[in-house]
């Protein structure tokens, strides 16, 4: 079985892992709720595909998609997005209370953004798991 060198995100810690392929390595680390990058020691490779360099592709993406990628990659970005969403909701409610005309769509969009980022955080941590369908009547 090939060996992989896994670097944990945000640290300088490396682990040697023996696995069948990169997917098995990354699945094991995701199951433990640890973000990491697997480098194959038996040849060139990055993450899940051999010779895959995501930075070139990322540079061509729209700004909103790159911002969402940052949220997927770093927990701090998700926390900042949720904090900004809360501030926007509170500001909108304050403006409504002081009789300033605010479009209802703004409150709806900020509220939905807040709920979405909450779901994003919780599902990333593994607290909200997809429903597993039962295949037998046992």
Written overview of the protein:
- The chain has 138 residues and is mainly alpha-helical.
- It folds into two domains: 50 residues; 69 residues.
- The protein has five helices and three strands, in the order E-E-H-E-H-H-H-H.
- It has a three-stranded antiparallel β-sheet, with helices on one face.
- Helix 3 crosses helix 4 and helix 4 packs antiparallel against helix 5.
- The two termini are 37 Å apart.
- About 15% of the residues have low confidence.
Outline the fold blueprint:
Blueprint: E1 3-8, E2 14-18, H1 22-31, E3 36-40, H2 54-59, H3 63-73, H4 75-97, H5 104-124
Antiparallel strand pairs: 1-2, 1-3
Helix pairs in contact: 3-4, 4-5
Describe, in short, the structure shown.
It is built from 5 helices and 3 strands, in the order E-E-H-E-H-H-H-H.
How many helical elements?
5
Largest sheet: 3 strands, antiparallel
Shape: elongated
Radius of gyration: 20 Å
Strand content: 5-15%
Q: Strands across the major sheet, in which order?
A: 2-1-3
Order of helices and strands: EEHEHHHH
Descriptive terms for the model:
about 140 residues; mainly alpha; 2 domains; 5 helices; elongated
């Amino acid at each position: 079985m090939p060996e992989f060198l896994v670097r944990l995100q945000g640290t300088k810690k490396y682990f040697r892992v023996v696995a069948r392929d990169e997917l098995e390595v990354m699945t094991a680390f995701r199951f433990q709720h640890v973000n990491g990058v697997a480098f194959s020691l038996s040849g060139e490779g990055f993450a899940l595909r051999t010779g895959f360099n995501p930075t070139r592709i990322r540079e061509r993406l729209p700004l909103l998609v790159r911002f969402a990628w940052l949220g997927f990659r770093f927990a701090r970005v998700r926390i900042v997005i949720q904090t900004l969403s809360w501030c926007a909701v509170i500001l909108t409610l304050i403006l409504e209370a002081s009789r300033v005309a605010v479009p209802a769509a703004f409150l709806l969009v900020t509220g939905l953004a807040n709920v979405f980022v909450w779901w994003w955080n919780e599902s990333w941590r593994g607290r909200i798991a997809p429903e597993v369908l039962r295949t037998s009547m046992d």
